[in-house]
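User: Protein folding is very new to me. Would you mind checking the protein record under this note? It all follows right here:
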Amino acid sequence: MRIFIFGLGEIGKYLLNMFANAHQIVVSDLDVDTMETVAENYGVEYLDYEILDDLETSFDYAFLVSDDVSTNVMLSIQMISQGCKNVVCYVNDERSKKVLEKLNIMAFSQAEIAKNIILRSFRGGMYRAIFENMLDTYEGKSFRGKSLSQIKNGLFVISNNRIIKDYNYVIQDDDIVVVYR
């Protein structure tokens, strides 16, 4: 799977850590020095975002999470036109969000990205293959068969492509448990 990450701030580096070992990653950033350093440190390819027009292949996923929202919006439209069907874009205003959603581009505020990216970007069985922090046990204890109220904070459960918030919910075998720190 080919994944493009534009914007190597906190969210971009988090995504890079999450995907780096399992997929072909290409990174880009407005700051060339940052882009080259991060690419070298993680052993991934880097690409100047200004030459994306010249690419002959498309990406499976594009995460556009730079603080420069106008560039994110421009690149998201470009990615869709090049055949990328899964584009996630960071925006900071409702107008940009509505425009992108009309183009089937997933647009999120910074706060929404952390919460919703997991649910809206991936489907079903891909969770286990992609997320390295997916655990069945934590600190030696199994989650299965326990209710959320019996488990400490710092995790959430995905069941049927939605995050479970009901503390009486009992974790099932096919649920996904994500531990975050």
About this structure: Residues 2-123 form a domain with the Rossmann fold fold (CATH 3.40.50.720). The helical segments are 10-19, 32-42, 69-81, 94-102, 110-121, 126-130. The longest strand covers residues 2-6.
